[in-house]
């Protein structure tokens, strides 16, 4: 029996077959039509080289062609001359001059000749290449000047005159070379990621997640006001920390000291000593909920961002507020630190991204390309680039000035979190529970995941608030609205044959806004 498929499935299969049939021909240049190419070249010659069309062709070009009377492929006549003699040409329209000093200028004595070609050639050979090229350009310009001074239009030569392509330094002019059709970059193949563990234990939305530098355990913060520490290998709960009086919105583990930092909607920023599992420092100053935090990789500085539209820089040891970074006009949703300039990057609900000067405490650059709130920013671990996530687009940027690279379009949801690993896998997690995986270099979306919610939860509780790669970059952890932590790993059985990259050129396009 023939299995019946829906029209949608049949159309999709047909589309895929057609795509596979023609994908090999993508970006191939169309065959050259001789007639139209000649017309095109003739027009190009007249428009771009009209000022030098009257000039003679070089001697070696005439020898190459065999006979000096051979026709040009584009329908112009070559300048003819006797092969045995020195070729000397008259420039029409110049002022005549006498052959030497003290000689009266008469019809018999007047001279109107160019310097001999052999003399010019020997001089060009003696000069270094760059100098001869400059001189050739200067001479070509000078001919136009001669014509202008003589009162003759540069382009008013009679139709039968010679064609000469000015070849500076003997190189063919690139303007007449056939251009190669632009090719689309093929994305790097990445194995698909699959869900292999769901960890439950929190009694509220899991809002933030961080992996410790030793890769032994990870920490989560939740709307149940607790911070929980879990074993990374087994997924077992190791420890619960209580102290916040509202949702915990950010956690990070220090690589420089045995400290854990947390922040929450209770305006508090806490430093926990993991040897005693107690709070040892508070950082007071924010006037509203603190939405995120990050540690500087090389100095003992903590940066937090808040709903009070500011980010604050704290000295970890003294608890002093070093700078208050003000400039955003709405809640600052995310903050990131790096050792290179600019050392601090913030994304805000006012739709802007700001790159900050840490020393001065002032904005270096403001990026206004996004049209909606920027809730997530991620720095590439190897390249000097970063990405920002907003409901309108994910955008990639270059440091240090925030030059726009490309848009990653297609994740049409409120993007809460971004993560990237050294292999160039970018993960975007959204409020509706969808997770998209992208190839960083080309912006190709190679996988889309929408994991089922925990049994007993509503479908509306599908949402990803945070995601992070572990230190080995072989595991991806997501913090979700169904009160669970989901762990993903690469599918070891997948190959490029079983999961081919079926990219389409139109997907990979760089928009400039």
Automatic annotation (TrEMBL):
Q: Which domain of life is it from?
A: Eukaryota
Note the subunit structure.
Identified in the spliceosome C complex. Component of the PRP19-CDC5L splicing complex composed of a core complex comprising a homotetramer of PRPF19, CDC5L, PLRG1 and BCAS2, and at least three less stably associated proteins CTNNBL1, CWC15 and HSPA8. Interacts (via its WD40 repeat domain) directly with CDC5L (via its C-terminal); the interaction is required for mRNA splicing but not for spliceosome assembly. Component of the minor spliceosome, which splices U12-type introns. Within this complex, interacts with CRIPT. Also interacts directly in the complex with BCAS2 and PRPF19.
Q: What is this protein called?
A: Pleiotropic regulator 1
UniProt lineage: Eukaryota, Metazoa, Chordata, Craniata, Vertebrata
Question: Which keywords does UniProt give here?
Answer: Repeat, WD repeat
The Swiss-Prot or TrEMBL record describes its family as follows: Belongs to the WD repeat PRL1/PRL2 family.
What's the stated role of this polypeptide? Involved in pre-mRNA splicing as component of the spliceosome. Component of the PRP19-CDC5L complex that forms an integral part of the spliceosome and is required for activating pre-mRNA splicing. As a component of the minor spliceosome, involved in the splicing of U12-type introns in pre-mRNAs.
Q: Where are the WD repeats?
A: 199-240, 241-282, 283-324, 325-366, 408-448
The record ties this protein, via Pfam families, to: WD40 (PF00400)
Matching Gene3D superfamilies = YVTN repeat-like/Quinoprotein amine dehydrogenase
GO term, biological process aspect, one: mRNA splicing, via spliceosome
**What organism is the protein native to?**
Tauraco erythrolophus
